[in-house]
């Protein structure tokens, strides 16, 4: 068994561990076999130790071995290091090799009396480059090996002509197999990362949360424990021609909501100034300076109605049976009734959701189908609610919290207020549309708009039919008129066939009065409903975006002492900390990359770009496309593993990744 673990070299006369690929002294065989690399039982290790002691031609004393400074060919049972630094200060006599530039600089100072130039701080770029050139002239990059990892025999030995022996070639797996192994590891890692990101559940926010926007909206509290991927899926647009019954209903409602928004916008475009001023009101007693305006391009409504489509899609998918943890919310009795009507129509076969009423061709674009009316009624009922204790009693507010979850995390005060503005504006459109159809005679209003007749006699009415006259009460020569006798309406100015007189039913408010009534009931501040919450969120979000300043944590004491939270230090301490951090980071980087700092790809310090306007989670200056990096950092190590035999020998054992080396 000892032959499988160790191999004997003739020169120098030492034994090499086949798996660890370094020398082992005869006196240390047992401890080596019981160590981390092998973990053999004590009895087994002791037996092998005794067997190895009988080998002939193996030196027991480390001081008796004559170590070479260079070998013509590499020893196949030892690791090769292609990043050795051979001292060039005295080429004839000095054969010192190291793999650390700092160690080489110390060798220069102690053995050659030469100190490497240093131009840090505010030195000019030209001086820094000249110093780097001088340092590089002091060494040569060579391939090296060493027999022992520490103590005697641990120095590096120059291998001028590294090559692979037949046994070494057999140990190295075929290139195609190595590439396939590396690709499999990369694919598995990407899958694990994607799954971990998808499975991440939302955590409740704390009072110490540094994000005032999340403290205001309380999204994290409401959505605690819900998977972000499920929230995104619940708001996603439905696929074309889905097979699932629920998704078919979602698609119908999605398309219906767009038609409702289009027809509501058309109504707003034809309304008078007074109605549009009333519809844009957000506070009682406020006098808006601009009326409610329709979008300039009607095609833009498709983009701006999307938040409402997502709200209805979320409600549809959470009301239907589902196998994922969804946010909890409630509905009022009226909301539940309107939802059942809408879902019943959406679940019917295509073409059976109700047709438009028979109207003349020029008025056909104004007519609403049964499902469009049901969709409009449900959206209005989402607005028609009053909170008792908190805003998340509203299904609309709950759905808006779900809209706060974006692909890259929570939407911030820069990206979320535009969504709120779209929801609020389309909601105002729908209030005007609802008020139109609540009028006792909506078709007469639509007909005047279609004919562009702004003075049809049926719409002409006095503000107060009981207003007294000047001579009333002082007598008159005219005979009294018969009470209740209607006067003949004047003939139409624009038509020989005037519309008949309209008798308004007292139970239904006229168009403009209905707009005013609904706005004051649930569309302005002070009504304690979902619209007030959305208005407050938008106002606060814009305030944070434009005016918020991060709270200060830094104070000074004395002349140069800086206080930050619970820490106190001077600027000199801080500079020393930074220098130490850079040194430690450089050493760690060299260990992780298995390469000396001087051999790593250079960083283009003078050509680094950054975009301070980027607020996407996880973005930093390394992702700026304007910076030209010498290598692709995401694949640099894995590419070295593909190409460098030394890397393959370190990480692979028999064509398979070695867990111990990776850890």
General description of the model:
The chain is an alpha+beta fold and 663 residues long. It folds into four domains: 63 residues, no CATH class; 77 residues, no CATH class; 51 residues, no CATH class; 275 residues, no CATH class. 43% of the residues lie in helices and 7% in strands. It contains 25 helices and 14 strands. Strands 5-4-6-7 form a four-stranded antiparallel β-sheet, covered by helices on one side. A hairpin with a 3-residue loop joins strand 10 and strand 11. Helix 12 runs parallel beside helix 20 and helix 16 crosses helix 18. The chain is elongated and about 135 Å long.
Task: Please give the structural blueprint.
Layout: H1 2-5, E1 6-8, E2 15-17, E3 22-24, H2 29-33, H3 42-53, E4 81-87, E5 97-98, H4 101-112, H5 125-136, E6 139-145, E7 157-158, H6 166-171, H7 175-198, H8 212-217, H9 219-222, H10 228-235, H11 245-270, H12 273-279, H13 301-304, H14 306-319, H15 333-346, H16 370-383, H17 395-403, E8 405-406, E9 409-410, H18 416-438, H19 442-451, H20 511-522, H21 530-547, E10 554-557, E11 561-564, E12 567-570, H22 571-593, H23 636-643, H24 645-651, E13 652-653, E14 656-657, H25 659-662
Antiparallel strand pairs: 1-2, 2-3, 4-5, 4-6, 6-7, 8-9, 10-11, 11-12, 13-14
Biased composition (Pro residues): 480-489
Region (Disordered): 469-504
Pfam family, one: OrsD
């Amino acid at each position: 068994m000892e032959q499988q673990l160790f191999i004997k070299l003739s020169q120098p006369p030492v034994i090499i561990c086949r798996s660890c690929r370094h020398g082992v002294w005869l006196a240390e065989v047992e401890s080596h076999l019981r160590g981390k690399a092998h973990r053999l039982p004590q009895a087994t290790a002791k037996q092998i130790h005794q067997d190895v002691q009988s080998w002939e031609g193996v030196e027991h004393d480390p001081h008796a071995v004559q170590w070479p400074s260079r070998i013509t060919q590499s020893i196949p049972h030892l690791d090769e290091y292609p990043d050795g630094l051979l001292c060039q200060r005295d080429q004839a006599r000095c054969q010192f090799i190291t793999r650390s530039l700092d160690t080489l600089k110390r060798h220069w100072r102690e053995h050659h009396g030469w100190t490497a130039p240093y131009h840090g701080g505010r030195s000019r770029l030209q001086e820094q480059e000249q110093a780097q050139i001088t340092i590089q002239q002091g060494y040569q990059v060579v391939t090296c090996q060493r027999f022992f990892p520490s103590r005697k025999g641990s120095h590096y030995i120059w291998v001028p002509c590294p090559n692979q022996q037949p046994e070494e070639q057999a140990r190295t797996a075929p290139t195609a197999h190595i590439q396939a192994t590396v690709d499999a590891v990369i694919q598995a890692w990407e899958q694990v990362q994607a799954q971990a990101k998808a499975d991440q559940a939302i955590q409740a926010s704390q009072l110490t949360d540094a994000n005032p926007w999340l403290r205001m909206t309380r999204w994290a509290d409401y959505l605690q424990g819900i998977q972000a991927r499920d929230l995104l899926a619940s708001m996603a647009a439905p696929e074309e021609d889905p097979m699932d019954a629920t998704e078919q209903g979602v698609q119908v409602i999605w398309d219906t909501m767009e038609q409702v928004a289009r027809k509501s916008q058309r109504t707003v475009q034809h309304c008078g100034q007074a109605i549009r001023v009333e519809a844009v009101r957000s506070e009682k007693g406020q006098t808006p300076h601009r009326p409610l305006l329709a979008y300039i391009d009607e095609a833009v409504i498709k983009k701006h109605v999307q938040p409402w489509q997502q709200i209805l899609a979320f409600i549809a998918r959470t009301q239907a049976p589902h196998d994922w943890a969804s946010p909890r919310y409630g509905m009022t009795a009226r909301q539940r009734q309107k939802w059942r009507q809408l879902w019943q129509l959406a679940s019917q076969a295509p073409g059976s959701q109700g047709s438009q009423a028979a109207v003349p061709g020029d008025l056909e674009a104004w007519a609403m189908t049964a499902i469009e009316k049901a969709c409009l009624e449900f959206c209005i009922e989402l607005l028609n609610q009053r909170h008792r204790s908190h805003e998340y009693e509203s299904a609309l507010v709950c759905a808006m919290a779900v809209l706060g979850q974006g692909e890259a995390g929570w939407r911030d005060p820069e990206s979320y207020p535009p969504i709120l503005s779209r929801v609020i504006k389309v909601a105002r459109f729908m209030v005007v549309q609802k008020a139109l159809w609540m009028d006792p005679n909506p078709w007469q209003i639509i007909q005047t708009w279609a004919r562009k007749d702004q003075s049809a006699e049926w719409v002409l009415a006095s503000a107060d039919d009981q207003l007294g006259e000047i001579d009333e009460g002082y007598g008159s020569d005219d005979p009294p008129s018969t009470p209740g006798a209607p006067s003949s309406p004047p003939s139409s100015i624009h038509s020989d066939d005037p519309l008949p007189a309209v008798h308004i039913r007292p139970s239904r408010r006229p168009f403009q009065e209905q707009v005013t009534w609904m706005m004051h009931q649930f569309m302005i501040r002070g009504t304690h409903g979902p619209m007030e919450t959305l208005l407050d969120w938008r106002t606060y979000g814009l305030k944070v975006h434009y005016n918020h300043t991060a709270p200060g944590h830094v104070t000074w004491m004395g002349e140069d002492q800086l206080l930050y939270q619970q820490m106190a230090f001077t600027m000199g301490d801080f500079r020393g900390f930074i220098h130490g951090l850079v040194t430690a980071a450089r050493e760690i980087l060299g260990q992780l990359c298995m390469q000396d700092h001087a051999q790593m790809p250079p960083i283009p310090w003078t050509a680094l770009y950054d975009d301070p306007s980027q607020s996407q989670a996880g973005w930093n200056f390394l992702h700026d496309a304007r910076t030209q990096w010498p290598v692709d950092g995401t694949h640099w190590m894995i590419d070295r593993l593909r190409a460098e035999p030394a890397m393959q020998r370190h990480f692979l054992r028999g064509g398979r990744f070695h867990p111990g080396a990776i850890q």
